[in-house]
């Protein structure tokens, strides 16, 4: 577990962009049972989360088509909600950061850590834009 003082600015970056933090398995279940599209950002303290995943995800929200619901769990901090979110992302193995798009509770698009590392924030945003265009 990381200390809250360390992760608070990383949390706030997404909350400030309109993301709802999910802390429990029930929070995740409730969020993913909503009708429409739900984006789940598995936040992380790593450099690729700070350098490309969070900025790219936030930039993707500037488009006409975006998810109906924006949510986030924090790997290494929000253990219960992160485990539940990852369970909902099967068959993909756990990775952080990662970004998943669900439609009516079904996983329809996934960006794993290996899709994020070495990519620019603009590339992440473009990838998500394509998913929004198709599913939102």
Order of helices and strands: HEHEHEHEEHH
Instruction: Output the strand order for the largest sheet.
Output: 1-3-2-4-5
Q: Would you identify the regions where 5 or more consecutive residues have pLDDT less than 50?
A: none
- Provide the helix percentage: 40-55%
Q: What gyration radius follows from the Cα positions, in whole Å?
A: 13 Å
Strand content: 15-25%
Contiguous helical run count: 6
| Whole-number mean pLDDT | 96
Main beta sheet: strand number and arrangement? 5 strands, mixed
Structural class based on helices, strands and sheet pairing:
alpha/beta
Number of strands: 5
- N-to-C span: 34 Å
State the assembly state of the protein chains. Answer: single chain
Using the alpha-carbon principal axes, give the shape.
globular
